[in-house]
Design a protein that fits this description.
235 residues, alpha+beta, 6-stranded antiparallel beta barrel, 3-stranded mixed beta sheet, 26% strand
Length: 235
């Protein structure tokens, strides 16, 4: 675990210079991974929550929280019960806090600039089985993550003046009309109106969205849709 923490160049991760302290991220993760009692876990949590991955007093989250999420999940799985509780609390806080202007997104390998909350939610969903196994606390985290949905377009067909988009839905897109960010080739386009036409059947992630007043050519296969409101989150 320590090698994984040290393999990250925490100082190179962008963050508001008045609030983000990379040394706190390193020290806090080290301490939390080695915590053997409640006091040690609390001290580690104070490092991480006081400028390491979030700044709890100002309710701000940093891009470093995205990198730390898989590590915190590993600590929750392997660490002392007090460390597990602290790690899960930090993940909940990171998902709910808003980022500072200029530090609201993280870049994926394909160039997609995801909002911090959506990137954290993606990591949480990747550990669904583990979190479900934790009971109420883990299920609560997954429920919060579900609001940060993403939809990968597989195929589109024209439907009158709208487009029916078929693809894979992760998370939960509520009923009603929503705005979304369309991510393709590193560019972001805002779609003002879409609705969930057909939700996934039980045991499946396949769904259909209706994108209002857009043509299929504007929605290429492989493009990703994310909640527009997540892109607007600014501390």
């Amino acid at each position: 675990m320590l090698d994984e923490i040290d393999a990250v160049d925490w100082g190179s991760i962008p963050g508001h210079p008045d609030w983000y302290e990379p040394d706190r991220a390193v020290r806090g993760l080290h301490a939390l991974s080695e915590a053997a009692n409640l006091v040690q876990a609390a001290e580690a949590g104070s490092q991480l929550g006081g400028g390491g991955i979030v700044h709890g007093h100002s309710a701000a989250v940093f891009p470093a929280a995205v990198i730390a999420t898989p590590l915190l999940l590993d600590i929750a799985r392997q660490g002392h019960p007090a460390a597990k509780a602290t790690a899960l609390g930090l993940l909940d806080e990171a998902l709910l806090c808003y980022p500072h202007a200029g530090y609201t997104r993280v870049a994926a390998a394909d160039g997609t600039a995801f909002p911090i909350c959506c990137a954290i939610a993606h990591h949480l969903r990747a550990r669904t089985d583990f979190l479900v196994g934790l009971g109420k606390r883990g299920k609560s985290l997954l429920a919060d993550a579900a609001a940060h949905w993403r939809f990968e377009i597989r195929e589109c067909v024209a439907d009158s003046s709208d487009t029916a988009a078929f693809g894979i839905l992760a998370g939960c897109l509520p009923d009603g009309v929503h705005a979304a960010e369309l991510h393709r080739a590193g560019a972001i386009t805002v779609l003002n109106e879409l609705t969930l036409e057909y939700p996934p059947a039980e045991g499946s992630l396949e769904a259909c969205l209706r994108v209002i007043a857009r043509h299929p050519g504007e929605l290429p296969p492989g493009a990703m849709l994310l909640p527009a409101e997540c892109g607007d989150r600014v501390h």
